[in-house]
Design goal:
With 487 residues, this protein is α/β, with parallel strands linked by helices. It has 11 helices and 41 strands. A 9-stranded parallel beta sheet has the order 14-17-20-23-26-29-32-35-38, with no helix packed on it. The protein is elongated, with a radius of gyration of 32 Å. The structure holds uridine-diphosphate-N-acetylglucosamine (UD1) and calcium ion.
Amino acid sequence: MQTIALVLAAGQGTRMKSHKPKVIHEIMGIPMVELVIDAARQAGCNETIVITGHEAEQVEAVLPAGVHVVRQEQRIGTANAVAVAADTVAELTGRADKASETDPQNGVLVVLSGDVPLLAANTIEKLVRTCVESKSAMTVLTAVLPDASGYGRIIRDAETGEVLRIIEHKDATDQERAIKEINTGIYCFALDNLFTRLALIDNNNAQGEYYLTDILALLKAAGQRVTALAVENPEEVGGVNSRVQLADATALMQQRINRAHMIAGVTITSPQTTWISPRVNIEADVTVLPNSHILGTSYIASDVVIGPDTRIVNSDIGAGSVIDSSIVLDSTIRSNVSVGPRSYIRPKCLIEDGAKVGTSVEIKGTHIGKGSKVPHLSYVGDAEIGTNCNLGAGTITCNYDGFHKSHTVLGDDVFVGSDSMLVAPVHIGSGAVIGAGSVITHDVPADALALERSEQTIKEGWAARHRAQHETTHQFTTREEASQNNG
Ligand code: UD1
Ligand code: CA
């Protein structure tokens, strides 16, 4: 069965007070409209159409591949916003709108809102199932809210409970406004005859708009079945119209995601300060410590410990690794690797099993082989480091000469003494040793010692003489002497 999602994203969203259209504002780094598209795809929709209008180019620029875009030239109402997709729908289904019968088995159109980012995929699935199983021409997703003001209200037959029509708040009587069941603006329609019937809607109402909601009464008048599905969790259908609601939706998303991970076996010690984006996969027995952000498309294997104070973006972390108080961007870290505290792994790093990137180390575009260690205070950029190397404290790859970036290559089992500069391009053969404090500008053969520093000089007794010379002005007291004086 063809299930086409149609996402309304033509509105401006003036209450956002933004130069950007509302639907591209982000929740955990993902534009709201994309979250809606993701949910539709997860729910099994095989095609997605996005209706753009206000600042269409900006919205279209963030849309994922494979989405069909239809521009609505004038925002004259939600019925028009759906109607403009008629040609695209006909192309996708390969058949005309007119059918002798209306049967959802022949295909459905699921109407979603680009500014309702929390709608869960399983709610969409349930909506479609309800429509198909009840053979309805339309199933409307409703919610019962303590404060229904502003929303369209669901009018039901007092006796049978059957849905009869939707009345917009602005057109409703006081009696109708007392109804707490609202139209979420999310629907599943049978495709048969849908566009033919949408063309019958007029704009004879309080707002002078073509209301999509009017289709309900039209379908009823044509003898079609219309059903309603009440959403279990009304939080899912909250629209985002302001920055305050954007933050509220983000917090709800955070809770939902953290909860799902905890249920699946992830320890999150401080869910309030942990931010995990929807496209992150985490295996069981991972521990996430406070103030950690795992964003983008990331994968965290079992027994990893992340945090505290860590940010991981678009990266994979292998089993048993520990990432402490560090930042990891667009990189792959394999198993039993230790990173941090306070290190910065910049894009395109690959750190192999059992390696260590220790305290305050910055690495970029670097491959670190199995078991190799960069334990303290280093910068390693554009480097290829073999297995079981040790880069002493303060080792720096000088990869930039002001014009070009160059590579540093180390074989296996290389030992680099502390505070050495490896001036790229340079190649250090396997098993070589670099003496501490060397500036290495030439290749070092395998198993050689490279030493680049001036010879040490010793001046016997120099320090004692130096002190004696300054004795009269020597006012320095040790902490011990000071405390004895005070006592
Ligand atoms: C709509 C429903 C209302 C429901 C509410 C839920 C109608 C007539 N009313 O009201 O019953 O309770 O949603 O939030 O549908 N849009 C377009 N093009 C247009 C008009 C709107 O793309 O020409 C988009 C808007 O950007 C928005 C969505 O459609 O994303 C809803 O439109 P809006 O005018 O805000 O309808 P509501 O007044 O919220
Ligand atoms: Ca030196």
